[in-house]
TrEMBL record:
InterPro entries: ChsH2_C, ChsH2_Znr, NA-bd_OB-fold, Thioester_dehydratase-like, Thiolase-like. PANTHER family: BLR3430 PROTEIN. Residues 455-465 have a biased composition (Gly residues). Residues 453-476 are annotated as: Disordered. Coiled coil: none annotated. Residues 339-366 form the ChsH2 rubredoxin-like zinc ribbon domain. It comes from Gordonia oryzae. It comes from the Bacteria. GO terms for molecular function: acyltransferase activity. Residues 372-430 form the ChsH2 C-terminal OB-fold domain. This is Hydroxymethylglutaryl-CoA synthase family protein.
């Protein structure tokens, strides 16, 4: 039995590239230097889970995987604190893989996470019209949480066409003249949509969601799929995440009982037909995609090019960090990836990182695991280091006192303007650095004043108990 969507969430990075820098009409949503498809997937998925007790599978869809020959979905799965007996798999590709991920999650009551970082050569259409982001959809049968959108129809047609492509070893892609795709895709869209609606027994469409890497298809979306309202991704073409972000934007405004038709036009046409339920009114993501899109922090063009490896600059006159060591990461996997500490059952003291012997009362082996990722906290003290190695200096480190206990030192993400003692923060999964082709993932602190309101506030607290007072060092 196919499950329905029970929750969804999107993540749009904080940074915005001014349109005047790239010859675009509006600004461009860009991932930070410490973000990739894995970290953005964690952010979107964590918001979509929102206390879910059971997930039967994690499926990461991306065209910009952080690793090859390693399953990136397992990193997402581990960072979310999901039990190890749950399958995690990558689906690498763009539009068709996005539909495959949603379909697979629907058949397994799983979590589909669509995430991508899109890079275009300077001056290219991909640079002007692309965007970075992630979307996550949790499927279930409605036993524990109500279904907000039922899948009632689907149809597909695969077409071999050299419309858009990228060599596996290349960062940027290429495209053919867009009229080729337009002439091939337009009749196919009308035919496949008609088949999907007939299968669902639907004649009237309330929301048409159209995603495609072909600009002509996007421009003509409202004529290709007649509907009361047509939605395309508000961040520009975001690859594997494009359909998900646009679908989430439709769910943000859809009323109960409305039909939402999701159309992916990539190497053919894939159509999914959803009908919303009354539960959608209470289960929308906290802040709509449109509101998340409207807010951000500007990054200058040279720095953005440096982040994407398209511009070289002099490195800090400091030794570059060593490659992370696999055995140490394996021994500390729950702490490093899921930010899980231990709370003493004798006195309630929360240890970050986890400990066997309580630093407060001295009790031994009386610890309970406790995940603090996403929990709110306050800045106890901070420092600005302008000499430390960083792809985007300076490095700002802050000691964070978590709500409900626990203290640790974190690097601050997404800029530290306005940081002060007592400032509210949450945590976010990021790359600390990459050395020897190994990504050193860990958590950073993020000022709530800089958090895009659509990405959650992390105000959740833990149980009230003693707060640790020992200052810890950031992991190497």
């Amino acid at each position: 039995m196919t499950a329905g969507i029970i929750s969804y969430a999107t993540y749009l990075p904080t940074w915005r590239l001014d349109g005047t820098d790239i010859g675009a009409r509006g600004d461009r949503v860009v991932a930070g230097f410490d973000e990739d498809s894995t970290t953005m997937a964690v952010a979107a998925a964590d918001a979509a889970l929102s206390g879910a007790d059971q997930v039967d599978g994690v499926y990461l869809v991306t065209s910009s995987p952080a690793y090859a020959d390693k399953t990136n979905a397992v990193t997402v799965h581990t960072a979310l604190g999901i039990e190890s007996d749950v399958v995690a798999a990558d689906l690498v590709g763009t539009g068709k893989s996005a539909v495959a991920g949603l379909t697979l999650a629907g058949h397994t009551s799983g979590l589909a996470v669509l995430s991508d970082v899109r890079v275009g050569l300077p001056g290219s259409l991909d640079e002007k019209s692309g965007g970075d982001g992630a979307a996550a959809f949790l499927f279930g049968t409605g036993q524990d949480r109500p279904v907000i959108a039922e899948l009632i129809g689907a149809a597909s047609r695969s077409i071999e066409i050299l419309d858009r492509w990228r060599a596996p070893s290349s960062t940027t892609g290429e495209r053919w003249e867009e009229r080729l795709g337009q002439e091939v895709y337009e009749p196919a869209v009308r035919t496949v949509v008609a088949h999907a609606l007939a299968q669902a027994g639907i004649e009237h469409v309330d929301h048409a969601v159209v995603a495609s890497g072909n600009p002509s298809v996007v421009k003509r979306a409202s004529r290709l799929v007649p509907a009361q309202r047509t939605t395309t991704s508000p961040v520009g073409y975001s690859g594997a995440a494009d359909l998900g972000i646009a679908l989430a934007a439709a769910f943000d405004v859809a009323a109960p009982g409305e039909v939402v038709v999701a159309v992916s036009v990539t190497d053919g046409v894939d159509v999914l037909v959803f009908r919303t339920t009354g539960a959608i009114l209470d289960a929308r993501q906290d802040v709509p995609v449109a509101e998340s899109r409207a807010h951000g922090t500007r990054v200058d063009y040279p720095r953005y090019l440096q982040w994407r490896g398209l511009l070289s600059r002099e490195s800090p006159r400091r030794p570059e960090p060593d490659r992370p060591v696999a055995p140490a990461s394996m021994r500390n996997v729950e702490w490093k990836f899921a930010l899980t500490g231990t709370r003493c059952n004798a006195c309630g003291f929360l240890h970050l990182p986890p400990m066997r012997i309580c630093r407060s009362c001295g009790a031994g082996d009386l610890m309970a695991r406790e995940r603090v990722a996403g929990r709110g906290g306050r800045v106890a003290t901070y420092t600005v280091d302008r000499l430390a190695y960083s792809p985007s200096p300076p490095v700002v480190g802050a000691v964070i006192d978590f709500d409900g206990g626990g203290r640790y030192t974190f690097e601050v993400a997404d800029g530290a303007e306005g940081i002060e003692v007592g400032a509210r923060v949450t945590t976010t999964f990021r790359r600390l650095y990459t050395a020897g082709s190994v990504h050193n993932y860990f958590w950073k602190a993020r000022l709530l004043s800089t958090v895009d309101s659509g990405n959650g506030s992390g105000e959740g607290g833990g149980r009230s108990s003693g707060v640790g007072s020992r200052r810890e060092e950031m992991p190497a």
